[in-house]
Structure formats: structure tokens, C-alpha cells
Amino acid sequence: MATDTFDPALLEDASFQLNPYPVLKQLRAKYPVWRNPRNGMWYVTRYEDVAAGFLDHESLSSTIFEQSHSAVFGPSLTAMDGEEHSQKRAIIAPEFVGRKLDAFLPVIERNVRDLIVRFTEKAAKELVERFIERRDVDLVDAFSTRLPVNVIVDMLALPQSDHDRFHYWYRTFLTGLSPDPVLRKKGIEANAEFHDYLDPFVQERLRNPGDDLISKLCMAEVDGARLTIHDIKSFISLLLTAGGETTDRAIANLWWLLLNHPKQLEHVREDHSLIDQAFTETMRCEAPVGGEVRLVMRDWDIGGVHVPKGDVVNLSIHSANHDEQVFASPEKFDIFREDLYIGREMRIGHREEGRSSHIGFGLGKHFCVGYQLARTEAVVGTAMLFAAIGDVRLKPGHNPVMGGNDGMRSVTSLEIQFDSA
In sequence order, which residues have a C-beta less than 8 Å from that of residue 345 and are 6 or more positions away? Predict the structure, then answer.
């Protein structure tokens, strides 16, 4: 496929950061598998091809993240493949999904959602109470950036008084994934500091395990194998970053979209069961993560194009979620759309009877391990906000621009006004 008829400068222009969808539409229409002559990276943009890429673990590998994620966090699930990934995910993943998390609860019959709801309700209630009398607040600063970290800290049974330190650490970890050597160095130093902070907590939970997540990670075992102390601390670093940052942005984007679509906001306010639909459509329409890169481990034929072994591909989540062959009027935010699968996200995706899953959490064995945590925080936190405040609206003259921020697509502030509930 020709590479000289699409201008690669379009991907570097400031307008692409603000709104990537028109350029991605061009690629989907004419060059769905396209090699950037400037950096050699392949861009895969159609839904079918992106989904196939996420699910083809023989041809595409996440080991490319050894240069970034593992450098900052230490051994990271995002940078593992094969037996090592399967074994360690098998130890970790049940602590987030399925019935193994029942052990967290005083009543054995309850499931993982109850646990997350409990922590989310507690954290959301405390945050809302802090600003409810102000009637004028930045929802990002006062709520969405704080809720995910507070929930994770509670699940780990770490001191909430150290919230500002956790917030600093995960922000620094994230910027440390940059190829910039100065930022990378700061990320590595912050992670070392965080690991030193965690060490006495992990050692204590090994001696006296409790009902918290650190204890569960210390005690979890699969086929006689356990996580090492370094594995545990590295995973907590990753959890704090991914579980904090992505969820933070998703909640902010959900509220930005609802506030800019008043009729849909009113539907959701009147019927809280629609919050789940609104979150799902947010992850399709404005997912925080735009794509993931993979290393080609063997020659890969996709979309009628041959991609050679050793090259790097970018699986575009934003483009796949806006593929007009899958989603009608994809730029339109519509919580009632009939072509989007509404329900629990699945690692293998969902496509039947004219409905398709979004790919906002990825697919395959690297499907986001914390998706259920993110969904519950967004849905439960939003419901509690609606219950506490009335007639919420954007502060006049303060509608932020959605755009690329620190490698993610989100709003960084959201000033609102509201009345009593």
C-alpha cells in the first residue's frame, strides 16, 4: 500500500491532538494499515483489524513495553507475554474479577462488585461532602482525580492521609513512561521511593495477612507459585497509575459529555440505571487511551497488507471506536445507540445482532485488569453525585476543550455549578 499519499505531518499537527477523528477517518477510508515513513510505525485503524491485532498474541507482542513500563515499574503485566504473563495474571486477576474477591467481605456470599461499591460509596460520599456547600467547583480537581486514588488506597489499606503523596507518585510514574530521559529518570526515582514506602506494609501483611488487597496478593497462589515481594510492589505501582489515571480521565469525560448533552443528562439524572449506558458510550466516544503499540513477532498479514517481523504497530482504539462500518454516526454521543453492546466488557469483545463492544479497555489477554474497578467507580460515583447535587451545569464561560493531555484524551478541568438536591 502506498505510503506517500497520506501526509504524516497530519499526525503531528496540534489540531490532531485536539481532534484526531477526521485524520483517523482518512486513514480508515483509504489507508487502514499504513506505515509512517517518518518513524516506521504502522497504524492500524479499522475496527476489525484492530480487534484482530489485540487478539493475535502470536504475531503481536507487548514486550515492547519493557523499554518503558518495566523500566519505571519493574516487572509489569503490560510488558509480559507467554507463560510468564499467564501465570502472574492468573494470580492477580481474580483479585479484581470473579468470586475470589468474596474473601474481602464479612458476608461470604457477596461478590467483587459489592467490595468495590463499598469503597467507592465511602470515598464518593466523603468527596461530595467536602464541596457540596460551595455550589461552584472544579469536578476534576475535587472529584474525578481523587476518587480512584482514594478507592485504591482503601483497598490496599494504606493511610488516606498520604493521598497527596499517592497523587504525586502516580502522576510522576505516568510522565516517566515518556522517552524523555529526564522524565524517565524522575519516574524511576519516584517508583523507587514508592517501593520503599510500600515495603513495611508488604512485610507486615506477609506476617499478619488481613482482608486488604496487599494481603490477598501476598497470599494468592496458582499451581504452587506466588508473587515475589518485588512483583507485588511493581503491580501496586501499575495499579495506582493505570487504575488512577485512566479512571480519573474516564469519569471526567463522562461528565463533560453529559453536561454538553443536556437532554441525555436529564435522562440519566431521572433514571440512574442509564449511567452504565452512558459510561459505555463514553468509553466508545471519548476513551482516555487512544491506542496501544505492539511489536511484530512474525510476519503479519492484516487488511490486505504485509507487515514484516520486527516492525511496530499502533492499534488505534480511537479509530476503531469511531469506525462508521461498525457504529453509525460515530462522532455523535448517544447513550441510546442501538449498535453498541451495553453490558460487562469482555476480554474477547462482543459482536452479534448488530451490536459491537467498544475497545476502550483493549481486548485479549492484556485486556485491562482493572476494568471492573473503573466501571464501578464511574457508575457508583456518578450516581452518588446525582443524589447529592441538583441542576448541575457547566459554569458559564468555562466549557473546557477536549484534547490530548499527557498522552491521553480528556478534559483537565470541569467547572460546574449546581443547586441543592
Answer: 357, 358, 360, 361, 367, 371, 375
Which helix (H) or strand (E) segment holds residue 125: the answer is helix 112-131
Q: Which three cell numbers stand for residue 170?
A: 502516580
**Domain CATH for 245:** 1.10.630.10
Nearest-angstrom CA–CA distance, 363 and 359: 7
2-14 residue pLDDT tens: 445 899 999 989 8
- Under 8 Å CB-to-CB from 160, ≥6 apart: which residues? 150, 153, 154
- In this structure, are strands 389-394 and 300-302 parallel, antiparallel, or unpaired? unpaired
Q: Which residue has the cell 448541575?
A: 392
Q: How many domains does the chain have?
A: 1
The residue range of the domain holding 282 is 24-420
Angle formed by the axes of helices 371-388 and 247-259, to 10°?
40
In a domain, 312, yes or no: yes
Report the SS3 class of residue 111.
Answer: coil
Q: What is the pTM of this model?
A: 0.83
